[in-house]
Amino acid sequence: MTAYAPAAVFFAVAGLAPLVVRDAFLLDSLVLILIWGAAAAAWNIAGGYAGQVSLGHSAFFGLGAYAAALCSTRWGISPWIGMVIGALIAMATGFAIGFLSNRLRGPYFVLATIAFSQVLLIGASRWRGFTAGSEGIPVPFHAGFWTLGIADKRVWVWIVLVLAVLVYLVQVYLERSRRGFQLAAVREDEDAALSLGVPARRLKIAAIAVSAAFTAVCGALWAQYVGFVDPAYVFSVDISIKFSLAAIIGGLGTALGPFLGSVLVTTVETYLRAQFGGIEARFVGIYLILYGCALILMVRFAPQGFVGWIGDRLRRRSVAQATS
Amino acid sequence: MGPAEIARPAPLHDIPQLIVSTILLGGIYALIAVGLTLIFGVMRVVNFAHGEFLMLAMYVAFWAFSLLRSDPYLTLVVSLPLFFAAGWLSYRAVMRPVIQASHTVQIFTTVGLSIALQNVALVLWTADARFVRTDYYAAIVRLFGAAFNVAQIVAFAIAVAATAALFAFMRWSYTGKLMRATAQDRDASSLMGIDTDRVYAVTWAVGITCVGVAGVLLAPIYPVYPTAGLQFVLIAYVAVVLGGLGDMAGALIAALLVAAVEVVGSYVLGTSWKEMLYLLVFIGILIVRPAGLFGQRGAEALGT
Amino acid sequence: MSLLSIAGVTKRFGGITANKGISFDVAPGELVGIIGPNGAGKSTLFECISGFHPPDEGEVRLDGARLTGFSPDVVCRCGVARTFQKLRPFQGMSVLDNVMVGALTRTKDVRHARDQARGLLARVGLTEKADSHARTLSTGQRKRLELARALATQPRVLLLDEVTGGVDQRTIPGLVRLVRDLHAGGLTLLVIEHNMRVITAVAQRIVALHLGEVIADGPPEAVARDRKVVEAYLGQAYVQ
Fold first, then answer.
1. Residue ranges of domains in chain A
2. Average of pLDDT values for B88-113?
3. Residues ≥6 apart with Cβ < 8 Å to B206
4. What number of CA atoms fall less than 13 Å from residue C168's CA on the CB side?
5. How far apart are CA A156 and CA B186, in angstroms?
6. H or E element at residue A175
7. Which domains does chain B have, with CATH numbers?
8. CB distance B4 to B266 below 8 Å
9. Which ipTM score applies to this complex?
């Protein structure tokens, strides 16, 4: 059980922070860290645990965002329900993508996922009648819990914390359960797994569908929090890359990794936006340059991410202690 | 403005115009696609940063023109060795360490490179679109009842020459033979004493040189901005997958097909849905016949 | 009554016919050796039986029920397991976890699967290596791991592809003993083997393939002296 102590500490700190911290900027960062962390963890279910690396997850994020936004603006339905609808649509889309792309491996799969997300981007940008086109949808603020009109950032922290813990637990389940073992086998060597009776196809599709659903929930919450849905942003490849980057930095295929990765990624991004956002928009690109370099360096030098690095250190220390 | 507009400077509705536009466009797409497929064929790596090198070449042409008054076709002479060197260096620095690594690692390496390069351009040169307007830009030539820009014709001619040179190189030169051998069987090649590392370096550098040339050729015709590479590289991916990854001749034919789809598509549907069309075609190919028209069936499932 | 029946299996790859009308039956409890020079189509036959490459013509039946056309995982769950010629352990997982993947096909309980896996590791002699990473194993140990993993799926028929290939001489007797024990326990085995001494020692019956066709099918001594078999391996000059 001690293996889960770091995660318990992480979530406890996140949960208690709003009681102690007053600064709006810090609370805002915490909300974003948890949302992007949850999204990265959702991505990790497909990319890390099932080995289905996708760079099109923004498709699901955007679907969730639009579902919530459209539900509240067009039909006056609570964004909570919109979130569920978004999750269901995303899950169905995930099933479809998983089913159709089943034969595709590696870079072929990545290209397919990117293409899917860009189709949605263009569709959302052009379908003026339904989605208000490329101008995006401003999400109006109607105070109240049912309408997710919450001004108090502390409550936001707790709402997204629930989501974060949920996705974390799903990952833990994958590590310990029968399906998790089978999924790990599929990730390592799909054909060998098949020869042992592992229903690889079903598992991959299920992983993508679950991953899609949670990503959509993140999108829905994010849309309500930020208050604006811009198709060029929510369906962008940049966001898909952000999910994967956070997971990789923290530790691909580990349960806490995506959250730790999100701490770093979100902090750097928020800091740079704050520094340069005012002066000249182009300098905000600096954080993306850092993302790019981080990706190149991480996959080469630390493929196990931060969590793996710490795990390594602990193992070496225990070996040293045992031999001394 | 999309390529189809520029290919039709005057509203002519003739078949000859469509055919000519297709061929002119196809020539340039072919050069980009062939470089991409070459890299995959020999190294088994999908270069997600291909479009960014194209974009950098466009900027090279722009800055040479803007600061040195150098005509793009003159810049071409410099850009060829420049991009070969850039390719060689980027291979050594970025690709070589991960050449034996898993797909995931390679994918994120080139994706990382892609974002980094895009945003370096953004930070250095802003998102403003730049234009290379040479004196002869607006000159129009009329042939066979069709009208086209001088810049396009020259771009096409040079692109064809470059592609032909590449095919000749692959077919008859010693290095080309080494590259083809490595493409067919990496392990056997290294067992036979072929320095696969060298082959990879040359392959990557040649692939980058292709876009280095293509970018300079495109600068006088299209606006230059940090994400300019994306629209072309999307087309290149479609052509490469359609032709069968690794198949140079396939990529060439597929590039022409894609150009035809673009020209006819824009003509019939209008340009705003053009990208959607490519994407749907692309997804369609990946689902129905991922190995492409000419590729080996099942290649995509082997992942090697 | 045959357990595994292969009827008219034909498989083409482009211009090459790797398997041409292959037919033979395997009785329950039989150990059949499959021999043939390189390119004879032995591994292709295994691919067809195990569902990786559905045959273009012909059928494979297990206890009368059709196996052809089903995906490999279904074939395994029906009771046909296989090992690979090019060993494929799950590198990132421990030896025990590797075997557990196989065990989890038959049981939903992770703890139960773990116990079963330990039992199998003991049977193949890999108990000390249970918690080591699969990639730290020697070739001989990997062969045992492949075996344990496949056995964990509780197969009725086991397809062994070159179990002694690439292994040094000293480890062969141990592997042969293992195969013998499995057979003695009642398991039905199809064994592809290049080593004639090994296969004639364990097999009750040998099926010889050449250029995709069955050229001999019978007891080891008879097949070893069969004219067509000698010709296939050594060439016409050696036929008496």
1. 2-323
2. 92
3. B35, B38, B84, B87, B166, B169
4. 4
5. 54
6. helix A153-176
7. 3-302 (1.10.3470)
8. yes
9. 0.91
The SS3 call for residue A75 is coil
Residue of A nearest to C50 (CA): A195
CA separation for the pair A176, C175 (Å, rounded): 33
Smallest CA–CA separation between C234 and chain A, in Å?
34
Domain covering A2-323 in this structure, CATH number = 1.10.3470
pLDDT in tens, C41-97: 898 999 999 999 999 999 999 998 999 999 999 999 999 999 998 888 998 889 999
pLDDT reading at B1 higher than 50: no
Domain with CATH 3.40.50.300 in chain C: 4-79+155-238
Decide if A186 contacts A52 (C-beta within 8 A): no
Q: Are strands B146-149 and B140-143 parallel, antiparallel or unpaired?
A: antiparallel
Residues of chain C short of pLDDT 50, as ranges, are none
A47 secondary structure, DSSP code: I
Three-class SS of residue C7? strand
Triad C199, C201, C202: Cα angle to 5°: 70
> Strand B140-143 relative to strand A228-229: parallel, antiparallel, unpaired?
unpaired
Separation of alpha carbons A80 and A262, rounded Å = 24
Q: What is the DSSP string of B148-180?
A: EEHHHHHHHHHHHHHHHHHHHHHHHSHHHHHHH
For residue B68, what are its two tokens? 């040195």
- Among C50, C101, C106, C151, most A C-beta atoms within 10 A, so best to mutate, is C101
Assigned fold of C4-79+155-238: Rossmann fold (3.40.50)
E strand or H helix that includes residue A178: helix A178-188
The three-class DSSP label of residue B65 is: helix
| Cα–Cα distance for residue pair A192/A203, rounded to 1 Å | 15
The one-letter amino acid code at B31 reads: L
pTM: 0.88
Distance from CA of A232 to the nearest CA of C (A): 39
- pLDDT beneath 70: ranges in chain A: 1-2, 277-281, 318-324
Q: Count CB neighbours of A232 within 10 A.
A: 13
Count the neighbouring beta carbons within 10 Å of the beta carbon of residue A316.
10
Q: Is A196 on the interface with C (CB under 8 A)?
A: yes
Q: Cβ distance C205 to C218 under 8 Å?
A: yes
Residues of B in contact with A241 (CB under 8 A): 111, 115
Tens digits of residue pLDDT in B183-229: 887 778 878 888 888 899 999 999 999 999 999 988 888 899 999 99
* pLDDT at residue A32, rounded to an integer: 95
DSSP string, B175-223: HHHHHHHHHH-HHHHHHTT--HHHHHHHHHHHHHHHHHHHHHHHTTTS-
Check if the beta carbon of residue A249 is closer than 8 Å to that of residue A159: no
Residue of C90, C91, C96, C109 to mutate for A, most A C-beta atoms under 10 A? C90
